[in-house]
Description:
Elements: H1 3-76, H2 80-115, H3 123-135, H4 137-152, H5 156-180, H6 184-207, H7 225-298, H8 302-329, H9 331-338, H10 344-357, H11 361-376, H12 380-393, H13 395-436
Helix pairs in contact: 1-2, 1-3, 1-4, 1-5, 1-6, 1-7, 2-3, 2-4, 3-6, 4-5, 4-6, 5-6, 7-8, 7-10, 7-11, 7-12, 7-13, 8-11, 9-10, 10-13, 11-12, 11-13, 12-13
Amino acid sequence: MSKEILRKFFHYVSANIISMIGLSLYILVDTYFISKGLGANGLTALNLAVPVYNIVNGMGLLISIGGAAIFIQFHATGEKEKAQNVFSHTLVIGLILGLIFAAIGLFFSAPLVRLLGADESIFPMANIYLKVIMLFAPAFILNDILSAITKNDEAPTLAMYGMLLGALFNIIFDYIFIFILHLGMLGAVLATGGAPFVGIILLSSRILSSKSSITFSMKDFHFQPHILARISSLGLSSFINEVAGGLVMIVFNFLILDLAGNIGVAAYGVIGNIYLVVVAIFTGLAQGVQPLTGQYFARKEKKHLDSLLKLTLLTGLVLSILLYGICFFFAEPIVSIFNAEGSALLSSLAIPGMKLYFLAIPFMGLNIILSMYFVSIGSALPSQIITLLRGVLILIPSAIFMAMAFQMTGVWLSLTLTEVLTNGIALILCKVHLQKGKVA
């Protein structure tokens, strides 16, 4: 393996993992400050509203990841006009979708919150969070798009700065709005909704500069349905993964409400938000390699493609060991950070729950890496199969069955069961494509 591949790998991957951790901090920081300022009811309200944020972010990923995967293939082969046309489509489609979400939040937030299971004690906080987060949907989606395209325009470090500065904005203004101005849940969601504007301003400055190979002009834009279809096809697995996370959260919320009540949902809220960080790290690894994989695939550099996949899988294994070690040995202090009221019941549910839930980490990492790898080489279907299996088709039936059979222990272990079963199918798909010569 050449030193150049190693240098590029660690440059792109490190920047992207940090970026994705910064993105995951949007909700994690809300969780921390809401737990301190609003207690267990605030955590429950947040956990009921977060699935809608997953859908908004999923749509941003659908457009941004799909668009970036096509962009890099044209960019790598010097077809600049086609690359710019893909960027223009991505931007226009993303803004239209964002405005649709904003309208839904403005007019239909209350029935959505009730549908998600909020009772009268939770409804006001959940409703204000959901309404405002959807009003900011255009900003979240635009930030996703600019970040993905900037990474593929050979500026992953700038994309990292955009995400980190957005996360820092969220932390500072969460504190100001909740503890100084006493705005409660409204303050938390305003801080989160304002954060992507930081990234938009920073990343736009590059696109408008001479350093970028990207240009955008509505004057030259002509909508082409086949480009939308290709973007959607390659981005679909990222969308499914994010939306499935929200759907699974809804299912888990209902299962846990029945087994352990609102405190159980609050405990799951703590674990679920740590899960977002774990997923962000593996997604950062997988998406960080994507620009390089796309380049080598477009140039038919099979040897480099093969080396890159092996290096990515090895890095994923090392990260798995480190992450599970943290979740196992530091479960108690992690839970205590979010247990501001010192609830013994919340601790008794969340601490053993964390140790069981995150047994899935190594299997999860492999599935995420292989799914994004298929997207990077233009093979949408295997990626979609992996994502659907781990996100919906296996996980939801597993959670329901395991909850019925083993109560809360079954709920926590259902993720590991799902990821293991998906692993088997993902490896078969990989073997089939290797035999066909479609992958390295």
